[in-house]
Amino acid sequence: MAKLSLEELRKLRDEKRYELDKRETENKDTEIIVGMGTCGIAAGAKEAMQAFIEELNDQGLSNVAVKQTGCMGLCYSEPTVEVHLPGMPDIIYGDVDPETAKKIVRKHIMGKTLVNDHIYDRPAADIVKKD
Amino acid sequence: MEFNHYILVCGGTGCESSKADDIYRNLLKECEAQGVKDSVQVVKTGCFGFCEQGPIVKILPEESFYVQVKPDDARELIAEHIVKGRQVERLLYDQEKTRRLTGIEDIQFYQKQLRVVLRNCGVINPENIDEYIAREGYAALEKAIFEMTPDEVVEELKTSGLRGRGGAGFPTWMKWKFTKQVQEEEKYIVCNADEGDPGAYMDRSTLEGDPHNVLEAMAIAGHTVGAKQGYIYIRAEYPLAINRLNKAIEQALDYGLLGENILGSDFSFNIELRLGAGAFVCGEETALLASVEGERGMPRPRPPFPAVKGLWNKPTVINNVETWANIPVILLRGANWFSNIGTDKSKGTKVFALTGKINNSGLVEVPMGTPLRDIINDIGGGIKDGKAFKAVQTGGPSGGVITSEFLDTPIDYEHLQELGSIMGSGGMIVMDEDDCMVDVAKFYLGFTVDESCGKCAPCRVGGRKLLNILERISKGQGSRQDLQKLKDIGEAMKRAALCGLGQTAPNPILSTMKYFEDEYLEHIDEQYCRAGKCKELVTYTINPENCIGCGICARRCPVNAISGEKRQPHEIDQALCIKCGECYNACKFDAVIVK
Ligand SMILES: Cc1cc2nc3c(=O)[nH]c(=O)nc-3n(C[C@H](O)[C@H](O)[C@H](O)COP(=O)(O)O)c2cc1C
């Protein structure tokens, strides 16, 4: 990537913002976002990530992206995972061990059913989106 | 099968105890009875972090947030909300009633947290600069270079009221202004990411979750004060944060957001990492700068302050990670937006690392002025295992304890100081009835004595003396004069030590003595430790009435001090017992007694 000029940065921002927004709308892609801070990794986020990838493979689901992010603040319930799925509200799961990861793929992503006892909530509203 | 609605019932400990389970069952029953079973899924969730208003029921996709729900409300919720599509006003959380005194419109949501510093943490992929850019990343740098003069940036910081988050709370704009004023070719920008407080991990998480935020802020400072080089001093024990920072720097260089002629302007700025070896004193700014220069990390007297004579004797702006993380958003949303959050003299939010005997340990970001009670009960979900709250330590080894009678104190720099503690960097360790206050003071003092660099006598000698006295007291060998000695030495250290480490080291003792004098006296007069923590003062015995002779304790005992026939009451050999408490924790029949 060549160095950006001011105009190019602004253009890039608009493009990427559009992509991020697209996630929120109906025809967004399915995403599993795993919290990969030190707290998440210590609690087994890497194993959970691996389990997601394996289960998605086993089930032949190729349209699901597995991504990573930092600590959301819910360290007591790590590993935490956020699932974006078209037609479903965005959901945050906590205490996701490999078993639960498989359940999330089978029940939530394939069955459109939430997985009991593992749902958490974002700790605060988003100040970037609100305007 | 697809559902139209999802009903989330909070299953956290707080809500469970107020009948969340019955609500869950009634909701299921009502869904069945009212014939909507197939289009509604009822689920139990983890804690929503709003326990005071529990039990909580949230209905998606409308995001309706119902509070203080009773089992009998289930019928109405299903009949009205699900069947007729009308929210049940009566149970909706009333934003107006609990609106903060500061009246920030931004808390449209129900939670008590407001994420300014952590706004991107847990939202973006920290290893992808594009996601940061999409969320207004590097727009503040743009503004600082192309739309504002350096003086305007300083003025904006002044209006915002931002104060340093590294401990002392010094106004950030002043540091920048001092450095800006000095006429020198070479100046430096430094980020303090040493984070040495035991129990603190705010800065680590910020860097791991949103590294570009700090890079952008440092570049803004570089442009404002006229510096071309920045350093991030980060402890080597933070490998993930280091890795992500390195990636972030590489990406920013690639995009021309760091390096030569940023965004085509004539401003150039580079950032390098310097790894610390984990000495607590290297978090002190003058020791840190010495360490960056390759010297031994020891503090030097101030003035001159780093703002005027810092790294290699050049003017240097040094700020803490969290301070940096506030800066881009202040430039973007404006100083007034920021100064509307918080209290009179403490603006914005503060991130705390909530740990100890608390249900929901984690990173918490709240507006300054939030009462401790909200943090511990609502966000933290209360004390573990239903035990009684005793105190919370803020400010780590430089701070003190806050007791239950002060739980409603708004948290800001001034109020914490009044209570004999400090804001510090944001560690918050919650203690319950099982914690001994003499032991807590001894722990922190042991830490500062270990970490003292030894340069000045008040800290090197005074700290050791204090620790000796505390050790004596915790063995039941202390005297009443010792209390006076603790005070005298402590006060002398506060005045005479060279740096903050020695000056604040007595704080944990002075504050526990102030609020828990009775516990000190019990140790001294009665050789009694009510929490059972001071090993020399407790004995473990087995009550033969309760002991069924299962033998678990004997198997757990690491020194084979417990013996007895199968199914017969066992016994502890006091000469062998090391008082580790394993038997006490292992016994399921309450047969082990601690005295
Ligand atoms: C013993 C000691 C340890 C310190 N450790 C840290 C630390 O780990 N991180 C930090 O940011 N500031 C630490 N400080 C405070 C720094 O000296 C300095 O005040 C801070 O970097 C200034 O940044 P701020 O104005 O943004 O708060 C420490 C101070 C003392 C006396």
Summarize the structure.
The complex is a heterodimer of chains A (131) and B (595). In chain A, β3 (81-84) and β4 (91-93) form a beta hairpin.
CATH topology term of chain A: Glutaredoxin
Q: How many E-type strands of chain A?
A: 6
Distance between the termini of chain B: 60 Å
How many discrete domains of chain B?
Answer: 5
Low-confidence stretches of chain A: none
Give descriptors for this structure.
heterodimer, A: 131 residues, alpha+beta, five-stranded mixed β-sheet, 4 helices, 18% strand, B: 595 residues, alpha/beta, Glutaredoxin, Ubiquitin-like (UB roll), four-stranded mixed β-sheet, 24 helices, flat, binds flavin mononucleotide
What order do the helices and strands come in, and which of them pair?
The complex is a heterodimer of chains A (131) and B (595).
Chain A: H1 6-24, E1 30-35, H2 38-43, H3 45-58, E2 64-69, E3 81-84, E4 91-93, H4 98-110, E5 119-120, E6 124-125
Parallel strand pairs in A: 1-2
Antiparallel strand pairs in A: 1-3, 3-4, 4-5
Helix pairs in contact in A: 3-4
Chain B: E1 5-10, H1 13-17, H2 20-33, E2 40-45, E3 57-60, E4 64-66, H3 74-84, H4 95-98, E5 113-114, H5 129-134, H6 139-146, H7 150-160, H8 172-181, E6 188-193, H9 202-209, H10 211-225, E7 229-235, H11 239-254, E8 270-276, H12 285-292, E9 316-320, H13 321-333, H14 335-339, E10 349-356, E11 362-367, H15 372-379, E12 389-394, E13 400-403, H16 413-418, E14 427-432, H17 437-451, H18 457-474, H19 480-496, H20 500-504, H21 507-515, H22 517-525, E15 540-542, H23 552-556, E16 562-563, E17 571-572, H24 582-586, E18 592-594
Parallel strand pairs in B: 1-2, 6-7, 6-9, 7-8, 10-14
Antiparallel strand pairs in B: 1-3, 3-4, 10-11, 12-13, 12-14, 15-18, 16-17
Helix pairs in contact in B: 2-3, 6-10, 6-13, 7-8, 9-10, 9-11, 10-13, 17-18, 17-21, 18-19, 19-21, 21-22
The structure holds flavin mononucleotide (FMN).
